[in-house]
Amino acid sequence: MSSSSSSSSLNPIAKPSPPISEQNETPDQLNLMILGKPYIASDKYLGRIRDESYEKVYAFNRIRNTEKRMKKTIKGFINLKDQDEENTPQTTIALPFSCEYGFNITLGNEIYIGPECQFIDVCPITIGNRTMIGGSCKFYTPSHPISPEERNGGKGPEWGKPIVVGEDVWIGGSVIICPGIKIGNGSTIGAGSVVTKDIPDRVVAVGNPARVIKKILQDGTVVPVSKA
């Protein structure tokens, strides 16, 4: 069977969406947040969405059996791309796991996410197929004003930038990925790195801030990158 016919036969897991706004609630701040525009996080509707998400995170973390956890509680929580409702998802999220919204996270197939990972998903976070993420990694999409007067505690605006991680990426333990970052296909990020700039395809990047130190050739050979 060809890959196209196989994909078309899937009964895909429905993409999660936030709850419908109720009386005295509007989706205005939610829409601004997802688009990466300044919004007010203390908005009543956003607060209710977060509370409902926390309930889903709590339920997810209570199921210790991986197959049951991924099959029964992922629906309506996180978007699993190209995976179906009948079969156990080929993506694994170890415990404990935390996120802020859930519906802003899209995971490809055959992904592994290690324990104690945190996804602060005020903007979309997308992870490509066969990517492996070590324990205690942090994905941060939000940004805040530098000026304390503009921040005004929690009353001022904030905004976000999406994070995109390509396919076949290996992210070592305790890596921090900052807002707006793109990591190319086939790259490796060394443990403990802080990624503040985009990372190209098929390289090794390490450090704080992360910098490219090696290239990964098509035959799998790793060669050093000359210093500028």
From TrEMBL:
<protein>
    <recommendedName>
        <fullName>Maltose O-acetyltransferase</fullName>
    </recommendedName>
</protein>
<dbReference type="InterPro" id="IPR001451">
    <property type="entry name" value="Hexapep"/>
</dbReference>
<dbReference type="InterPro" id="IPR051159">
    <property type="entry name" value="Hexapeptide_acetyltransf"/>
</dbReference>
<dbReference type="InterPro" id="IPR018357">
    <property type="entry name" value="Hexapep_transf_CS"/>
</dbReference>
<keyword id="KW-0808">Transferase</keyword>
<dbReference type="InterPro" id="IPR011004">
    <property type="entry name" value="Trimer_LpxA-like_sf"/>
</dbReference>
<dbReference type="Pfam" id="PF00132">
    <property type="entry name" value="Hexapep"/>
</dbReference>
<feature type="region of interest" description="Disordered">
    <location>
        <begin position="1"/>
        <end position="25"/>
    </location>
</feature>
<dbReference type="GO" id="GO:0008374">
    <property type="term" value="F:O-acyltransferase activity"/>
</dbReference>
<comment type="similarity">
    <text>Belongs to the transferase hexapeptide repeat family.</text>
</comment>
